[in-house]
């Protein structure tokens, strides 16, 4: 792979927290892509396991990840690591990285604290925009595996229209590649959903389409757009950060494009098995979805979303009566009622 200034420069941001096994598998897929002008920035969100040491071993070529999605390569090892703390990156001048080989270079930023999904990624995005001065920022989950052409296809689509601010890959389930994970953010019943999620892939979405946004598991953002609309909202603890950015960008007049030729495999849900974790995520999802609808929803969208809340409330109550769920029924019901009240009140204010 040769470095080229003839194509837009892309910073690929990957966030790691106690997940080095997935991370090095993701990195290996990334270092085998065919795009000639990209910089990998790995953010470690204050891991408490051996993530840093294991990632160093991978870059040295002494730890070899195995995957059904690729054959491990030795020719691009060792990979040079440039390490910074989160304090150091803020004090850096412009990062000089001329004449480097993209597939043999890694910037590792070590956070002192776990800043969550939004905060951790924002540190990498800010560094990429201010210090490296890239044309695009690509967020890539550490539990993904990338096809060799995925960045090339995203860039080709994005460069065709100056107002395309977001381009999203076709995300497929890594455990069953016939199942769709996401083909872009759309608005359904008043709120952002992942189009096609859970459906069998029958090529029904294999055409480029204007959408509202993209899941940040594999989303390309134009730097000009990010500088105008801002980065991820750190008030969202987890879940819905990418949906908020999609809606915000959409309200600013930026377009988003789903690019089916760009394929990424996602292990979503692998670590979410404990009932208490699922319950917590359900609560956060409801809170954050409600906040997004309040901020950006039209009156019609708010009405539709109010019916979603009614349906959810009925599901929780009847599920509890039949003992088919373990949610703290009254606490979650109060949250739904509170969310419903906020939505209805906002309708009278608009």
Question: Any key phrases for this structure?
Answer:
350 residues; alpha/beta; Spore Coat Polysaccharide Biosynthesis Protein SpsA, Chain A; 2 domains; 39% helix; glycosyltransferase
Which helices and strands occur, and which strands form pairs?
Elements: E1 10-16, H1 20-30, E2 38-44, H2 51-60, E3 80-85, H3 86-91, E4 105-110, H4 116-132, E5 136-140, E6 144-146, H5 150-158, E7 164-173, E8 180-182, E9 185-188, E10 191-194, E11 209-211, E12 218-222, H6 223-229, H7 241-251, E13 255-266, H8 275-296, H9 299-321, H10 329-349
Parallel strand pairs: 1-2, 1-5, 2-4, 3-4, 7-13
Antiparallel strand pairs: 5-12, 6-13, 7-8, 7-12, 9-10, 11-13
Helix pairs in contact: 1-2, 7-8, 8-10, 9-10
Overall description:
The protein is of the alpha/beta class. It has two domains: 10-266, Spore Coat Polysaccharide Biosynthesis Protein SpsA, Chain A; 275-349. The protein is built from ten helices and 13 strands. It has helices at residues 20-30, 51-60, 86-91, 116-132, 150-158, 223-229, 241-251, 275-296, 299-321, 329-349, and strands spanning 10-16, 38-44, 80-85, 105-110, 136-140, 144-146, 164-173, 180-182, 185-188, 191-194, 209-211, 218-222, 255-266. Strands 1, 2, 3, 4, 5, 6, 7, 8, 11, 12 and 13 form an eleven-stranded mixed sheet that branches. It has a two-stranded antiparallel sheet with strand order 9-10. Helix 1 packs parallel to helix 2 and helix 7 packs parallel to helix 8. The chain is globular and about 60 Å long. It starts with 9 loop residues before the first strand and ends with a helix.
